Amino acid sequence: MYEYLRGVITEVTPYYIVVDVNGVGYQVYVANPFKYEEDEHAEQKVFVYQAVRDNDISLYGFKNS
């Protein structure tokens, strides 16, 4: 279980953002990825929820807890 990720936002797509944490890129689904465009290439803290299903493990991100 993850509480948050602190890292650099390296990519913003229509469905998710990529947070680089010490060289590992985490794909994090967020409600409105374009809110993070102004934070792209800056270190940010993204609170996350890890969803585990039979055929998928996903991270969902939030600006605050």
Automatic annotation (TrEMBL):
One GO MF annotation is:
ATP binding
- Superkingdom to which the source organism belongs: Bacteria
Q: Where is the DNA helicase Holliday junction RuvA type domain?
A: 1-61
Q: Name one GO biological process term.
A: DNA repair
Q: Where are the transmembrane segments?
A: none
| Descriptive protein name | Holliday junction branch migration protein RuvA
